[in-house]
Amino acid sequence: MKQSIYKNQNILVLGLAKSGTEATKILLRLGARVTVNDRTPIEDNEQAKQLQDEGAEVVCGSHPETLVHEGLDLLVKNPGIPYDHPLIKKALHMRIPVITEVEIAGEIAACDMIGITGSNGKTTTTTMTASMLENSPKNPKAAGNIGEVASKVADASLPEDILVVELSSFQLQGTNRFKPHIAVFLNLIEAHLDYHGTMDDYAQAKARIFRNQSKDDVLIYNADDPLVSSLAEQADSTCIPFSTQRIVDGGSYIKDGDIVVLGEVLMRRDDFSLPGDYNLSNGLAAATAAMKAGADPEQVRHVLASFEGVKHRLQYVDTVNGVRYFNNSKATNVPATVKALEAFPGERIILIAGGLDRKLSFDDLYAPMGQSVKGLVTYGETADKLAEAGRSAGVETILKTTTLEEAVRKAEEISEESDIILLSPACASWDQFRTFEERGDTFIEAVARLKEDKL
């Protein structure tokens, strides 16, 4: 299949970045005739120049609609490009398939795949799953949003490997035949509606992770999430639930303080390394997927007991003068911040929040802020809205700042020994930062400078 499926096809790759670049290289090697179209002019586009040297036709700086024509067999889009892009609209109107590079990964992989999706927790679960599969009969290769482009890893895969792929709704919407052998569906909350349009469209994009599965495949799903559970009822797969709230038949759960995975008691819940029920939920999902794929239970147990988390996802940063600092920059929406606050029951928290104003409500923060937040420091476009939310929640101390660096300083000023200062913005980063990673790194650097000043 690797050698023939795309041979002699006329393919347009729209948008480069990492995914488009890797997809083009693979398609060229598989014998396709590839045209690359990217908005960055060729003189400033090193990736396009490289692909041109490798045999691709390159059109950069604009998006001529003539690139989509009757002789085009396939359009491969960068996941971030919306479906109202003129070239994509024209292709769909002409019934030309529009895919993302994840579809290519599924077609060319020489081994089984575990696909992991959900609104929150994908990276943590993917990382844990891959770690749990170490020292097993299968050689785990993590890919997707977690690091290497999925198609690149799939192209180099061997039968003895197993791909563990983090999948976004943007990637999944661009799939037609894609089918991981094991699919993991973590949760579903209102997100990315500026891209998908409606909650139903967003949910249906996520559900593509199992749409092509058969009874021989496995869907591991969150029984505590009503929408995920409802979608799972439509699956033809062998469905395995997991739950932190109740015992679920044939699945994974907590019983009498024990973590039970597929009927096997692995360890005490108190020995799990990460805070919060949502991390426990991720751990159950990862353990279930890993054990279904043949992981050694002892390795699964070791990861559950020792996993230190993923950078920018409730990451412990440092302790300064008895105050612990946590970086949860990945919390780009309200539900993620709610879960972060709930991860520290009984603690005194100073919350740093703010970012891009997407005109969304912060009402769901009232209850958790009222329970544990002693101080709120806001910044960025949503500083005023979040401050108002804090007042409605009864937070005793509220400070508004302009930048994240200033917010860290203000949070330290109102802190006392044993407090937690938590960056969990509840907003996207794009008002002041290019990515949530850049935002988290800025927080880490601000904490380091603060510590130096205190020495």
Automatic annotation (TrEMBL):
Mur ligase C-terminal domain residues are 312-427
Q: Where is the Mur ligase central domain?
A: 116-290
Q: Give the enzyme's EC designation.
A: 6.3.2.9
- Give one GO biological process term: cell wall organization
Major site of localization recorded for this protein: cytoplasm
Q: Name one Pfam family in it.
A: Mur_ligase_M
Q: GO molecular function terms here?
A: ATP binding; UDP-N-acetylmuramoylalanine-D-glutamate ligase activity
Ordered alphabetically, the record's keywords are: ATP-binding, Cell cycle, Cell division, Cell shape, Cell wall biogenesis/degradation, Cytoplasm, Ligase, Nucleotide-binding, Peptidoglycan synthesis
Q: Where in the cell is it found?
A: Cytoplasm
The record's NCBIfam families line, in alphabetical order, gives: murD
Protein family according to the UniProt entry: Belongs to the MurCDEF family.
**Name of this chain's protein:** UDP-N-acetylmuramoylalanine--D-glutamate ligase
Taxonomy-wise, where does this protein's organism fall, top ranks first? Bacteria, Bacillati, Bacillota, Bacilli, Bacillales
Q: What gene does the UniProt entry assign to this protein?
A: murD
